[in-house]
Amino acid sequence: MTRIVPVLDLSRLEQGHSESRTFLADLRSAARDVGFFYLSGHGITEDEIADVLTASRQFFALPETDKLAIEMVNSSQFRGYTRAGGELTKGKADWREQLDIGVERDAIPQGPDTPAWTRLQGPNQWPGQLPSLKPALLAWQAKATAVAIRLLKAFAVALEQPEDAFDPIYRESPNHRMKIVRYPGRDTTGDGQGVGAHKDGGFLTLLLQDENKGLQVEYDGHWVDVDPIPGTLVVNIGELLELASNGYLRATVHRVITPPVGVERISVPFFFSARLDATIPLLTLPEELAGEAQGPASDPDNPLFRDVGTNVLKSRLRSHPDVARRHYADLLDSTLAST
Ligand SMILES: O=C(O)CCC(=O)C(=O)O
Ligand SMILES: [Fe+2]
C-alpha cells in the first residue's frame, strides 16, 4: 500500500548518482504533493532521540512554580514556558504546555529607528532546577540544524538550483527555533484542539514525536493521520519555502488532536528558518517546474512578508497575545498584530 505521507531515506543521497537522483525526485514530489513526509536515514541515533524525549519529560514533571518562573511573558524574545491554554491558533486556545527555545544570542540595543523585529533576538530562559535541560536541547538543536541544512541543499538541487542557493539566507546567523511540547490527555468534553489547524512559518520543520498519535495533515480536503514511525522525523514545508518556490512546494495545514484522558503526548518541533534580516528570494525555476508553480497561497487573514523578521514577528504576536501586550504594546494597532 502506498502511504499518503511517504517515508524518505536521506542516506540515499550518499548512495551514488542514480540513487541520489531518484531520492531528489521523490523528495520533490512528496514536498509538492502532500507537503509532509517521514525522514529516515538522517543519522540521528535512537539514543539521541531517547535523550531529548527524556529531558523533555523531566522538564514537564517539574513543579508548576519552577516552570512558571520562566514563563514566556517575561521574555520579549518569545522564549520560555507557556502553560496549557496560553497559546492561540487562529484566536483559539491550544491545549498543550511547551517551552520555546531560540538561538542563544545577545539582545540587540534598541533606538528610535531600530526595526521592531530586532527585539526577537536575545537569550533563552532555562529552568534553574533542571540544569541538564540546556545541554540536551542545544545538542538536539545542533543535530537538527545539520539535518535541515542537508535537506535544504537537497531541495535546492531538486528545484534545479545550485546546491548553495539558500546559503545566504541562513549562513552565519540562522534563526531556527524549537519547542518541547506536552499534550495532556483530556476527556471528550474538551474541544480536542491540541494545536489548531495552521501552517508553519519557516523553511522546513523537523518534528520528533513520541509513540503517541494525534498529528494530522490536511490532504485533498481530508485529515490524514501522521502516526509515529519509530526512528523517523516528520518533515514539513514552511511558508518561506513556499514563497521562495513561488508555490511550487506547499506549506501544508496540519493540527494535533488532544490525546484521550490518561495519555500524554510529547513532541519536539524544530523550525528551521532564515536570518531575521534576510529577504526571501524568488527562485527562477526551470520552465517545466515554473509552469506548475501556483504562486504562494494568499490568505487575507495571514499576509506573508518576504522580509523574514517582519514575518516572524507577525506570527509570534498573534500566537502569544500576553507577550505582545507586555513587550510590543507600541505595535498593537498595526496590521502586524491584528488577527
Ligand atoms: O506537536 C506536533 O506534533 C506538531 C506541532 C506543530 O505543528 C507546531 O508546533 O507547529
Ligand atoms: Fe506546526
TrEMBL record:
It is an enzyme of class 1 (oxidoreductase). Keywords: Ethylene biosynthesis, Iron, Metal-binding, Oxidoreductase. It catalyses: 2-oxoglutarate + O2 + 2 H(+) = ethene + 3 CO2 + H2O; L-arginine + 2-oxoglutarate + O2 = guanidine + L-glutamate 5-semialdehyde + succinate + CO2. The keyword Ribonucleoprotein does not apply. GO terms for molecular function: 2-oxoglutarate oxygenase/decarboxylase (ethylene-forming) activity; metal ion binding. Gene3D superfamilies: B-lactam Antibiotic, Isopenicillin N Synthase, Chain. Pathway: Alkene biosynthesis; ethylene biosynthesis via 2-oxoglutarate. Signal peptide: none annotated. SUPFAM superfamilies: Clavaminate synthase-like. Residues 174-274 form the Fe2OG dioxygenase domain. GO terms for biological process: ethylene biosynthetic process. Pfam families: 2OG-FeII_Oxy, DIOX_N. Its cofactor is Fe(2+). This is 2-oxoglutarate-dependent ethylene/succinate-forming enzyme.
